[in-house]
Write a structure and sequence with these properties.
The chain is mostly helical. Helix content is 59%, strand content 0%. The chain has 13 helices and no strands. Helix 1 (15-25) crosses helix 2 (27-36), helix 3 runs antiparallel to helix 7 and helix 9 crosses helix 10. It is globular, with a radius of gyration of 18 Å. It starts with 14 loop residues before the first helix and ends in a 9-residue tail after the last helix.
């Protein structure tokens, strides 16, 4: 039997080293570290709660999503598929869930309960397989999958092209016009392979540390 290829990941043990490697080949990223220091290594557990939190972060400020996940935690204690499925739509609405996100979280909870989605098994799967499984669920697209791969699984080579903070930081750092296309952004990000995730964290750090940042914070 052919041994599966290893999945490139990173962790606290090599995060600063990878930041330095990127900085050595990209003066703009080097300037981020020189000016603002190393970024935090943002991460979350590989859990149902993490995916619910990411769904709540879709198209809203991170502060709003945090308020909703905290309210849900107050309501059910442990955020598990079983506990969430016991709540009515009205109870989820009281936790600041929109009708759409209520449906998305229910689909996810049902998929995990039915063992259609196995989060622990995701630890050993490549990006493309995880993406195919998650995006088969209503309400989970490429952005949600990218953030899950970055935060929960620490996959090393993800650039979330749907993340406005990362994209706007890249444009500002590289002096690119606002109308720069998605394809051109991806071409710039390709130069950071195989550590585009680490470069993304440097971009988020730059975004949060710069005066022109918006309210959407990582």
């Amino acid at each position: 039997m052919t041994k599966p290829a290893s999945i490139p990941k990173f962790g606290l043990h090599d995060f600063h080293q990878l930041c330095d490697e990127l900085a050595a080949s990209d003066p703009d990223l080097a300037r981020v570290i020189e000016t603002h220091g190393y970024p935090p290594m943002w991460n979350r557990p590989n859990s149902f709660e993490t995916l619910v939190h990411i769904i709540l972060e879709q198209r809203v400020s991170l502060a709003s999503a945090l308020a909703a996940i905290n309210k849900l935690r107050e309501k059910v204690g442990s955020i598990t598929p079983e506990n969430v499925l016991q709540l009515t739509d009205g109870e989820l609405r009281d936790c600041y869930f929109s009708r759409q996100k209520t449906a998305y979280v229910r689909y996810l909870a049902e998929a995990i309960s039915a063992r259609q989605i196995d989060l622990p098994a995701m630890e050993n799967l490549p990006d493309e397989v995880i993406r195919a499984r998650l995006t088969s669920l209503k309400g989970i697209g490429n952005w949600t999958t990218d953030i899950y791969l970055i935060f929960a699984l620490q996959h090393a080579d993800i650039f979330p092209v749907g993340d406005l903070a990362a994209v706007n930081a890249l444009k500002r750092l590289k002096g690119l016009p606002k109308e720069t296309s998605r394809e051109e952004v991806l071409e710039f990000a390709a130069s950071w392979q195989p550590y585009r995730t680490v470069a993304t964290m440097l971009l988020w750090h730059y975004y949060l540390s710069s005066p022109a940042r918006s309210e959407r914070k990582r």
